[in-house]
TrEMBL record:
<keyword id="KW-1133">Transmembrane helix</keyword>
<feature type="transmembrane region" description="Helical">
    <location>
        <begin position="12"/>
        <end position="35"/>
    </location>
</feature>
<dbReference type="GO" id="GO:0007338">
    <property type="term" value="P:single fertilization"/>
</dbReference>
<dbReference type="InterPro" id="IPR019372">
    <property type="entry name" value="LHFPL"/>
</dbReference>
<feature type="transmembrane region" description="Helical">
    <location>
        <begin position="132"/>
        <end position="154"/>
    </location>
</feature>
<comment type="similarity">
    <text>Belongs to the LHFP family.</text>
</comment>
<protein>
    <submittedName>
        <fullName>LHPL2 protein</fullName>
    </submittedName>
</protein>
<keyword id="KW-0812">Transmembrane</keyword>
<keyword id="KW-0278">Fertilization</keyword>
<dbReference type="GO" id="GO:0016020">
    <property type="term" value="C:membrane"/>
</dbReference>
<dbReference type="Pfam" id="PF10242">
    <property type="entry name" value="L_HMGIC_fpl"/>
</dbReference>
<keyword id="KW-0472">Membrane</keyword>
<feature type="transmembrane region" description="Helical">
    <location>
        <begin position="96"/>
        <end position="120"/>
    </location>
</feature>
<feature type="transmembrane region" description="Helical">
    <location>
        <begin position="183"/>
        <end position="203"/>
    </location>
</feature>
Length: 228
């Protein structure tokens, strides 16, 4: 018989596992890893004549995507265009970024799998006498290691020609030049830290769902067990 067991620690682990997976996925897909040096608008002359703003814009560059501004001279209007600059894996700007993409993708795949499985741990806590929480926690630890490898390799690619075109001639491996780090990079770091926190919480979730209090509730014939 299936017993639905919900505790504060198991629910916290489940929610955090889902949040971490989505955060890492969104960061990976974003183009806001590097914020390029300010560039003047190509419609500056039109704006000067019309008294408009001459505020420069900052193009952004991701692992495989980028955002830049396209100006419409006739209307003095500017649109931001975002999309992949690489049509296939081999066109990613740096070999280090290719390795980063591989490690991050592997970590994210594991995190998404764990996030999916975590939803069902309310009904199924073990398979073949193995705790799902412990197995998921181990997988999250492995995913965290993949994420760390990807994030360490990523700055090594700042010396590629694509990054130099955004960050200036002083950009090189582990040196930003005229660029700054975007929110996607910080989100990936934060998600990596939370991944290891999830791995620790998984053990606490396993303890909470197998406690004596839960066993007492099961022996009383309850199918829905909610404990603080």
């Amino acid at each position: 018989m299936c017993h639905v067991i919900v505790t504060c620690r198991s629910m916290l682990w489940t929610l955090l596992s889902i949040v971490v997976a989505f955060a890492e996925l969104i960061a990976f897909m974003s183009a806001d890893w590097l914020i390029g040096k300010a560039k003047p608008s190509s419609s500056e002359d039109v704006e000067n004549r019309t008294g408009g703003s001459q505020e420069p814009y900052h193009p952004t560059l991701g692992i495989y995507g980028r955002c830049t501004r396209i100006s419409h001279m006739q209307f003095s209007r500017r649109d931001t265009l975002c999309g992949p600059y690489a049509e296939n894996f081999n066109e990613i700007a740096s070999g280090f970024w290719q390795a980063t993409a591989i490690f991050l993708a592997m970590g994210i795949m594991i995190l998404c799998t764990v996030a999916f499985v975590s939803v069902f741990t309310m009904c199924v806590q073990s398979i073949m006498k193995k705790s799902i929480f412990n197995v998921c926690g181990l997988l999250q630890g492995i995913a965290g290691l993949f994420l760390i490898l990807g994030l360490i390799l990523y700055p090594a690619g700042w010396g590629c020609q694509k990054a130099i075109s955004y960050c200036g001639p002083y950009a090189s491996a582990y040196k930003l030049g005229d660029c700054s780090l975007g929110w996607a990079f910080y989100t990936a770091i934060g998600g990596t830290v939370l991944t290891f926190i999830c791995a620790v919480l998984s053990a606490q979730a396993e303890i909470a769902t197998s406690s004596d209090k839960v066993q007492e509730e099961i022996e009383e014939g309850k199918n829905l067990i909610c404990l603080l």
